[in-house]
What we know:
Elements: H1 7-10, H2 18-24, H3 27-39, H4 45-61, E1 66-70, E2 82-84, H5 101-105, E3 106-107, E4 127-131, E5 138-142, E6 145-156, H6 165-185, E7 194-208, H7 209-212, H8 216-221, H9 246-261, E8 266-271, E9 277-282, E10 285-286, H10 287-307, E11 310-313, E12 327-335, H11 352-367, H12 369-375, E13 397-398, H13 401-413, E14 424-425, E15 435-436, E16 448-450, E17 455-457, H14 467-488, H15 494-509, H16 521-530, H17 538-541, H18 548-556, H19 562-615, H20 621-653, H21 658-685, H22 696-701
Parallel strand pairs: 1-6, 13-16
Antiparallel strand pairs: 1-2, 3-4, 4-6, 5-6, 7-9, 7-10, 7-11, 7-12, 8-9, 12-17, 14-15, 16-17
Helix pairs in contact: 6-14, 9-10, 11-14, 11-15, 12-14, 13-15, 19-20, 19-21, 20-21
Amino acid sequence: MSALIDVEDLFAENVFTVGTMEERLPKKVFEEVAAVMENGGELSKSAADVVAKAMKDWAVEKGATHYTHWFQPLTGITAEKHDSFITHPDETGKMLMEFSGKELIKGEPDASSFPSGGLRATFEARGYTAWDITSPAFIKETATGPTLCIPTAFCSYKGEALDKKTPLLRSMEAIDKQALRIARLFGNTGAKKVTASVGAEQEYFLIDQKKALQREDIIFAGRTLFGAPAPKGQEMDDHYFGVIRERIGAFMKDLNIELWKLGVTAKTQHNEAAPAQHELAPIYESANIAADHNQLIMETMKRIAGKHGLRCLLHEKPFQGVNGSGKHNNWSITTDNGVNLLEPGQTPNENVQFLLVLACIMKAVDTHADLLRQSASNVGNDHRLGANEAPPAIISIFLGEQLEDVVKQLVETGEAANLIKGGKLETGVSTLPDFQKDATDRNRTSPFAFTGNKFEFRMVGSEDSIGSPNTILNAIVAEAFCEAADILEQADDFDVAVHDLIKEYMTKHQRIIFNGNGYSEEWVKEAERRGLPNIPSMVEAVETLTTPKAISLFEKFGIFTKAELESRAEILYETYAKTINIEALTMIDMANKQIVPAVIRYTKTLADSVLAVKAAGADNCVASEMLQKVTKTLKDMQSALTILTDLEKKASAMPQGKEQAFYYHEHVIKAMEDLRKPADELEKMVDKEYWPFPTYADLIFEV
Ligand code: ADP
Ligand code: MG
């Protein structure tokens, strides 16, 4: 029997929670902290000193020797630079561990190497990290020892955002303010704050670490660049929700414990569609904390996998022909007096506030479908979106039968008198209970689906930060709320005005609603007819950030300046080019040093048998035909390799920017696919003993 785990006791034991603060801080200081957490503003210097000391004492009691400002630069992952609490010893040689309010609030890492997209030249490389008081400090336990991590925003000398957190925080303030106006219009005077909440379901693969380390593509690119399909894929659906194997179970158990200690509410775990694919979902929380926690989840998954001799792959498409990984981003907006603005209630057709919120979201998503699409794009997700397993690259909203019908009635008649009811689910077994059915089934093919009292944005990539998608969601909905509130606050007759506005928005933007099969070819045509944008790739999505429409949105709510948007666009192009370049070089290396030599060795064996069989007087045609086939494919592979080698040289010599990124997208990617084809053919022909690295079957069926 394993030792009992007291989860209640363990939960958040490594977090400097509000409760811990209340316990350890003088009442006055605690109240000041609570007020800043609630309403924003700055902590006084004296209070910051007291908080810092309490935080340090707490951390030192838990064995911490170092602290770090933990931030999220535009690399998409987190960054940290550790400082110890050590201070200069006095004359007697005695040293005291210290941590000041100044050190807590502001850091200045020499972080000039992070991407800034031209916002910082290296000669003015100052970048600052600033404490985000709304996300709790925590202790990370790694091989370096326990380290106090302080969630921070990362900005340039002039205050420009250089990270994923700053815009997210700005967008949360925008939606807070605008949603509050809507709530007030409906008589909710008690609410002081509206929070965007997020629950992000995280998909991932686990494979054997030793095998992973035999493949350069997994090491350098996080995905396989070669690999013929295994004889079996996911067609039997026997992995999805299947029994969790012992080795994976042991990993999940440790992962949960580590996450719970960090205050992450790891809640659901199961096997996913593909062999070796799994999912973890936490309970939803404020978007900002959810974004921090999602980073911790990804980081902890990788670390714990290592301890179990496993490797965690977070890439969106680690294996061709096998389901990829995403991150369903469940989003809702709730007032601090407990009203979820996305709660339709029993009679959504009569819930005017809900209908207005819905109309605004339809307007927001239709107006800024391109931005939403961009927010879910990254290099890896190009392999998923639109590839018949993930939502298409076209944004649409799924409302379900009941709400779609309400919208239809409102558009047609201005009233929604009827409501389609769920009815009873009869199991036909007398000992099983009958259920009240939901009025709506699920639609797994929709990129943006209403699921009861939240929207589920399903396009997000598994490896990506959820910062950007939620920044965009908050921003576009804040804009729609603001425009609606501007009209309704001035209305002489509120009831008539709100009724008209709902009808107007729904009529204008009903084209964004789609309840059918999002994976189908017909939808692509239908969407085109409706004038909905279809942006198939990451590089094509970049420009959506700098359209006049986008600039006006972001500047209006102080979320991004034009310069920040331009810098982000530049970074995206650079990231794309660099990533594909690494992949191309990895393929070239594996082809030159592993595949080609292995196949040559194999042809020698084949040639030897051709001669030997003939000398023995037998029919050598099988070996001989095999030899012909293998050498011909090898020759094809060699020419594809030469082409890729040339193109990579040309691409990497181009100046950085849009043109280079497009060159990689249009030419280098194609050459990579052309190299992969003959190589994968060879894998199917060559004796397994000669093949230089583990195959798909070894990787995903033998974990
Ligand atoms: P599934 O989509 O797999 O059926 P659930 O409905 O249980 O899963 O929820 C998935 C995620 O959505 C979880 O992280 C959950 O906490 C989150 N979630 C549930 N309700 C809300 C809400 N009102 N707002 C935001 N996220 C929510
Ligand atoms: Mg889901």
